[in-house]
């Protein structure tokens, strides 16, 4: 099973052909080998999302989505080549309808798409982010007894290897000590950062770069897009990569897809 996650930075913008070189997200969907794809920041209601992804849905992809509660913000979805037998939102009075978390059962596993909001140190926005983080961790604690993976844009760089300019971001949301400790505790509770497990002790691989300046060309990025898998699923992970565009002009999002290959249970039994 191959799982990809990508913050599309607005699905309606991502599907547009922005130039002769940039054909948008639809050609990527047509060519990807992924079985399941988690999308974040769709910024579209269910009707708009279905319309934008119509060619992919016509090709056989199944779709589950959680639309944003505020127009033009958040929104998550899961695409699967396999039937989706169930879908669930975050059970939260505050965040359940925000379009920041959606989990589905498909292909014999539980796959969740999550979008953790951008915070701002020492503001109400940061407090809101931290409240969401607490409720997300509580939900994830109920999934550790199954094969599950939570994919998405976490808006937190965990270690110095996960952000190019870590010295310049020590006091900024996304690299605050409390946020990083929260991820440390999440990993200690039984979750595995699959990409880091397969790419230990090295900078990156980054999956987000600012549109501004030469951040992309200089690979001055952040690794904030994770696939956190339960131990039962993580032991099946054999390869992970960031599908970085070959050139700035070919980007259809400020993020790049993060793709992990999980071998089948049958292959594990034969190994």
Quick recap of the structure?
This protein has about 270 residues and is an alpha+beta fold. The protein has helices spanning about 10-15, 25-30, 45-50, 55-60, 125-140, 175-190, 195-200, 230-235, 265-270; strands spanning about 1-5, 35-40, 60-65, 75-80, 85-90, 100-105, 110-115, 150-155, 190-195, 225-230, 235-240, 260. It starts with a strand and ends with a helix.
What does this structure look like?
This protein has helices at 11-14, 25-31, 46-52, 54-58, 124-140, 177-188, 194-198, 231-234, 265-270; strands at residues 2-7, 36-40, 62-66, 76-80, 84-89, 101-106, 109-115, 148-153, 191-193, 225-230, 237-242, 258-262. By secondary structure, it is α+β, with helices and mostly antiparallel strands. It has a single domain, classed as Deoxyribonuclease I, Chain A, CATH 3.60.10.10. The strands form two sheets. Strands 3-4-2-1-12-11 form a six-stranded mixed sheet. Strands 5-6-7-8-10-9 form a six-stranded mixed sheet. Strand 7 (109-115), helix 5 (124-140) and strand 8 form a beta-alpha-beta unit. The longest helix has 17 residues, at 124-140. The two termini are 17 Å apart. Residues 5-255 form the Endonuclease/exonuclease/phosphatase domain. The record marks 155 as: Transition state stabilizer. The record marks 255 as: Interaction with DNA substrate. This is Exodeoxyribonuclease III.
